[in-house]
Amino acid sequence: MYRRGGEQLEVFLVHPGGPYWSKKNEGAWTLPKGEFEDGEEPLAAARREFYEETGFYADDPFLELGSIRQKSGKVVLAWAFEGDCNPEELKSNLCQIEWPPRTKRFVDIPEIDRGGWFSIPEAKERILPSQQPFLEALVRNIG
To answer: In a designed cystine with 113, which of 17, 97, 129, 133 is the match (CB 3.0 to 4.6 A)?
Structure first.
C-alpha cells in the first residue's frame, strides 16, 4: 500500500511477529506477503494475505512491481495499490512456531506485530534488503 503525503510518497510496511524478530528493526520490515493456496492466482493470494496479515483490504487498481528471490530462495511477487490506513488498527492472524527452536514446544504468535508508514528513504533502511527493488519499481512507476 502506498499513499502520497503532500509531495512525499510513503509506503506501508509491516514488522514480523515472534521472538526471532522482536529485537530486529533495520532491514527486518517487509511487504505484507504470504504463500499461494492450491489453484490460487498470485494477485488473489496477495490480496488475501494482505488482509490476513493486516486486517485491511487491498483495492484496485493494482500496479505490478515484479518479482525477487529472497535469501531463503523464496520467490516473492508484488503489487502496489494506493490507499490509507491507521497502523494502530492493524489486526494480524496468528501462526504457530516451534520456540525455542528444536524443543518441540509450539507457541502461537501474530504473523505481524506492527505496521507503519515510511518515506521511500526510510523504507529502504527498514525493509529486507532483498525487497528494496520493489520500492525502486514503485518509484519508477509512480514518479
So the answer is: 17
Alpha-carbon distance values, 35 to 2, 47, 72, 84, 121 (Å): 22, 11, 14, 24, 28
In the CATH hierarchy, which fold is given to the domain comprising 2-142?
Answer: Nucleoside Triphosphate Pyrophosphohydrolase (3.90.79)
The answer to whether 126 and 27 are in contact (CB under 8 A) is yes
Tell me the pTM: 0.93
103 is written with which cell numbers? 524443543
The residues with which 79 forms a beta bridge, in sequence order, are 64
Q: Where are the beta strands (DSSP E) in the chain?
A: 2-5, 8-16, 63-69, 75-80, 94-98, 106-110, 112-119
The ranges assigned to domains in the chain are: 2-142
d(CA 58, CA 80): 9
Provide the phi-psi class of 127: left if phi over 0, else alpha when psi is between -120 and 50, else beta: beta
Q: What is the pLDDT of residue 35?
A: 86
Decide: 70 and 105 in contact? Cβ < 8 Å.
no
